[in-house]
Amino acid sequence: MNQLKKIGEISTEYGITSRTLRYYEEVGLIESVRIGEARYRAYDDKAIQRIQQILLLRKLQLSVKDIQTIFSTEDMRVLISIFHEKLNNIDKDINSLKTFQWIIQEFLRLLKEKGYSRANGLNLLVEKSQEIENRHDHVIESDSKKRLKEDYMEEINMAIDKISKLDDVRIINLKPMRVAFYNHISDEPEEHAWNEMIKWVKEQELDECFTTRYFGFDSTMPKEGSSEYGYEVWVTVGEDVKPSGKIRIKEFKGGLYAVSNTKGCPGDKIPLVYKNLHEWIKESEYGFGKHQCLEEHFPNIPSKQKDEFFGHIDICIPISEKE
Q1: Reduced 3-state DSSP string for the chain
Q2: Could you read off the pLDDT of 213-252 as tens digits, one per residue?
Q3: pTM to 2 decimals?
């Protein structure tokens, strides 16, 4: 029997977010049907089997693009070719990790021997790359060896650059804002909340204002045994804008945030952005703040978008200065 399962049931059963399921649907990997007056997404046996296949391939770290290619053909050679390419990439990753391992081992050795402080620790990495280059100068006897040496040094310098950067984390002080808001609770509240808000935004002609900003966040978590949760949407408004219909107005006091962007990140990797940003804060000079966690959506004019309201998201986690 072809039994339909709602998006919340699939999310709970397979440990996958409803946002990820919607993303897979947007890129054409799965299809859903709409049920009930609320038009909730549901998946039949065929879609569930496809979800299981996608999750397996994602565990093997295949990209969404590769998975799209696999599902677009019945030719087994395509799957074999993609797996071969993945193995080649893994070999390259292993070599890169060995380089990272060696650099960090040398870094730790010098830190222990010379007692460098944290302030000049990263400069030590740069100095170490020059030492490595000088150490290998005496063995360079031919153009081919020189090219190999230059490639090796470039790999080391790239590794240093990656270690030195803060992974696109920035600190912002979000100013107080007057916002229109709408909150919805269901199996998939995000879509309902945004549709309701965007409808109101267009009625108020706020979509024509380039300074309008759009935020969203999970307002409540699912209760035990339930797949329903809350999602709240904010849109910045001026003093002249009044509440109407389901949309209310409130003041947001603002606060300090650590921010990372999801641009170029597949939808199913957004939870990883949250995790990485959370870990970055734990290792930083900041503590976690008590004000509202937010997601700011871009671009700022959703009514001008053909297929989707937004292109990418700023993940904003509240922080505070450590005492």
Answers
A1: CCCCEEHHHHHHHHCCCHHHHHHHHHCCCCCCEEECCCCEEEECHHHHHHHHHHHHHHHCCCCHHHHHHHHCCCCHHHHHHHHHHHHHHHHHHHHHHHHHHHHHHHHHHHHHHHCCCCCCHHHHHHHHHHHHHHHHHHHCCCHHHHHHHHHHHHHHHHHHHHHHCCCCCEEEEECCEEEEEEEEEECCHHHHHHHHHHHHHHHCCHHHCCCCCEEEEEEECCCCCCCCEEEEEEEECCCCCCCECCEEEEEECCEEEEEEECCCCCHHHHHHHHHHHHHHHHHCCEEECCCCCEEEEECCCHHHCCCCCCCEEEEEEEEEECC
A2: 999 999 998 887 778 899 999 999 999 999 999 999 999 9
A3: 0.66
**pLDDT tens digits, 277-314:** 998 898 888 999 999 999 998 865 554 444 455 568 89
Assign domain 170-321 one CATH number from 3.30.450.40, 3.30.1330.40, 3.60.15.10, 3.20.80.10: 3.20.80.10
User: If you classify domain 5-71 with CATH, what class do you get?
Assistant: mainly alpha
